[in-house]
Amino acid sequence: MTGSSVNTERLLARLSELGSTGRDDTGRLVRLAATSADKLGRDRLVGWMQDAGLEIAVDRIGNIFGIWTPPGADSSVKPLMVGSHIDTVINAGIFDGCYGVLAGLEVIETLMESGVTPKRPIAVGAFTNEEGVRYAPDMMGSLVYSGGLGIEEALATVGTDGSTLGAELARIGYAGTHEPGFLQPHAYLELHIEQGPVLEREGASVGAVENLQGISWQKVTIEGDANHAGTTPISMRRDAGLAAARIITFLRERAHASNTPTVATVGCIEFEPNAINVIPSKATLTIDLRDPDEERLLTEEKALADYILKLAIDERVTISTERLTRFQPVTFDSGIVDRIEKAAGMRGLRSRRMTSGAGHDAQMIARIAPSAMIFVPSIGGISHNPKEHTPDIDLVAGANILLDVVRELTTSED
Ligand code: HGY
Ligand code: MN
Ligand code: MN
After folding, report:
1. What are the domain boundaries of the chain?
2. Which ligand 1 atom minimizes the distance to the CA of 138?
3. pLDDT in tens, the chain (414 residues)
4. Global pTM value
5. Are strands 214-223 and 318-327 parallel, antiparallel or unpaired?
6. Index of the ligand 1 atom closest to the CA of residue 132
7. CB of 132 shorter than 6 A to ligand 1
8. Distance 250 CA to ligand 2 centre (A)
């Protein structure tokens, strides 16, 4: 049946081209939200959407939408929405986020070319600042879109480089005019690489994602005393660096001993004055705590807070914490998850129900519409790393599952 599969060459060529867009002068892929590199990726995506004849809409937080209203469909009914993000982390792989956006665009173009007449519009979205590396919190564009964060507050966010998101969006030409949420989805589907080891380890091609874990981000500032590394007895030190190290080992040992899915990461750390022979007077670090169970995540946050209070006394330092983001675990729409599983079966693909360890825009859009995710395997479970890789056969299979579920959701009566 025509349109029963996506155009493999077109999808893979675009993934490769977008993957080479916005690299820095050392060749690393770094398209942080609202940077000039991000603009290059955005412009490329909008060009493909325009070539496909989609209506383009950009909202005030810079979320980009390509919208297809099929002949005979009622443009006033809620669209089916697919999508993800195209901003990246630092030294990223080429699939995280981009795969879901480009596969969503590919699905729309395949349906346009197949003569199928969906009963409702279909939109593909690229949400701003999913990664949250430059501006916290992550999933910001979809959080604003779903009403979880005010637009003015989001635009006023100051980045790690001292820039302001609103000014940067205006600078790169993506301070759109539509109010976030202007297009309320009938349902939302996000195709994404797993970014973990489960599918590969179990030999499954498709993940039918049932839920997504809770995320707690905070910044910790530790103030001690700078002093001479050679003359200061250990007993007289107020060592901010040592206190930071004890937080890192506390988090790892507690997560390791818990025998639960709890994970904890200190991804950023800075010492002042950061000199080889000076005891650090100040340390700032970030903590990323996650768990699929809200009660357990609350317990871990409390245990960390209690540890920090005791540590400050033990090491005679002052420690302050700042919450950067906090998202509860999310459960996806079981009806759509069933359809994903069935679509995989119809194509003879092994699927597996699973939890998402990573945060995604779907967890935000799930606040306003029935949502679910489709995963494809990540080789070695590697992501947020240039070694991130998914074989072409899995990329195409995932896009075809997306095609099948989108066709079903837009042509059936319900
Ligand atoms: O942090 C996350 O899980 C996502 O990659 N933003
Ligand atoms: Mn992602
Ligand atoms: Mn990511």
Report:
1. 8-212+330-411, 214-327
2. 6
3. 445 899 999 999 999 999 999 999 999 999 999 999 999 999 999 999 999 999 999 999 999 999 999 998 888 899 999 999 999 999 999 999 999 999 999 999 999 999 888 999 999 999 999 999 999 999 999 999 999 999 999 999 999 999 999 999 999 999 999 999 999 999 999 999 999 999 999 999 999 999 999 999 999 999 999 999 999 999 999 999 999 999 999 999 999 999 899 999 999 999 999 999 999 999 999 999 999 999 999 999 999 999 999 999 999 999 999 999 999 999 999 999 999 999 999 999 999 999 999 999 999 999 999 999 999 999 999 999 999 999 999 999 999 999 999 999 998 755
4. 0.92
5. antiparallel
6. 6
7. yes
8. 28
Specify the residue for token string 């609202």.
Answer: 34
Q: Which residues contact 313 (CB under 8 A, 6 or more apart)?
A: none
> What is the distance between the alpha carbons of residues 240 and 319, in angstroms, rounded to a whole number?
9
Place of tokens 């398209």: 31
Distance 93 CA to ligand 1 centre (A): 13
Q: In angstroms, how far is the first alpha carbon of the chain from the final one?
A: 23
Q: Do domains 8-212+330-411 and 214-327 have the same CATH topology?
A: no
Q: Is the CB of 87 under 6 A from ligand 1?
A: no
111 and 105 Cβ atoms separated by less than 8 Å = no
Q: Is the CB of 138 under 6 A from ligand 1?
A: yes
309 is written with which tokens? 């209070």
Which atom of ligand 1 is nearest to 383's Cα? 5
Minimum-distance ligand to the CA of 356?
A: 1
Q: Which CATH number fits domain 214-327: 3.40.50.1240, 3.40.50.700, 3.40.640.10, 3.30.70.360?
A: 3.30.70.360
Rounded to whole angstroms, how far apart are CA atoms 332 and 341? 13
Task: For the domain made up of 8-212+330-411, give the CATH fold.
Answer: Aminopeptidase (3.40.630)
Distances (CA, A) of 140 to 3, 100, 245, 309, 391: 34, 17, 30, 31, 30
